[in-house]
Amino acid sequence: MDTPGLQRRIYGALLDARAQDRPLVVGQIGQSLDGRIATVDGHSHYINGPAGILHLHRLRALVDAVVIGVGTAVADDPRLTVRAASGPQPARVIIDPSGRLPQTARCLDDDGTRRIVVHCVERPPSARQGVEWVRLERTPEGIASAAIVTALRERGLRRLLVEGGAATLSGFLAAGSLDHLHFVIGPVVIGSGRMGLVLPPISRLGAALHPMVSVFPLPGGDVLIACDLRQTSQTSHDR
Predict the structure, then answer these.
(1) How do residues 191-200 score in pLDDT, each as one tens digit?
(2) Domains: count for the chain
(3) What is the rounded distance in angstroms from the CA atom of residue 126 to the CA atom of residue 136?
C-alpha cells in the first residue's frame, strides 16, 4: 500500500480530480466480513485495523471536505481529521436536518478548518464561532444528496468524502451521487448488528449495481474493495 504504483492505483481518481480541479464524490465504509458496521449496541471501535484507518485518513487528506450524518456525529463524536497520514485537513460537513448536533461535538472544534452544518431548521442554534450554516429544503427522505453536493460545490468544496453513517451513505448511493465507493472489510464476523448499506429493494439481480471493482489486500488482514460506480462490470447476473 506504500509503493507509489499501488497508491496510484488506489487513489488515482482523487489525485487526477485534484490536479485537474474536477468534482468527485467518494464514499467510504468500514465493515465486517458479514457487512456489519457495528454491534446491536452500536459498538464499532475498531472493525478495521491500522491499515484500514490509514487508508481512511489518506482519503480525507485528498478531498476538500468530509461529510457525515448527524447520527454518526452523535454516536461516535468523530474528529474527522487527518492524523494517521500526512496531508491537509479537509472541511468538516455535518448533515443535521433537525438541528440536534450537540454544540460540544468534536467535529465543531475551532482548529482553523472550515466547519459546515447542513440543516432545515428555521433558526439554527447558536454555534461555536466560525461554523457555517447552510439551510436546504427537506424532502420526505431528508435532505437530497444532490442538493448537498451542489451547495458544497458552490462554496468551493468540489471533492467530497462521504464517510457515514449507513443512512447517509446509502442515500448518496441510491441517489447516484457517488462516483466511487470504497469498502474496507475487516477480518471479523459480527453475526448481528447494524448493516453498512440499506438500499431500496429490487426484484431481479439485473437491477443491482454492477460497478467495476479493484481488490487490494491490506496489511493486518483488512481488504479494500474499490468500486468505480461510473463504470459497469461486464458480468451478467440476470441470465
Answers:
(1) 999 999 999 9
(2) 1
(3) 18
